[in-house]
Amino acid sequence: MADIIKVGMADMNCVYPPNILVTLGLGSCVGVCLYDKESKISGMVHIMLPYSHQIKNNGNAAKFADTGISKLLDDMIKMGAKKSKIISKVAGGAQMFNFNDSSDIMRIGARNVQAVKETLKLFNIPLLSEDTGGNYGRTIEFSSETGMLLVKTIGYGTKCI
Question: Which of 25, 62, 103, 139 has the most neighbouring CB atoms within 10 Å?
Answer without folding.
Answer: 62
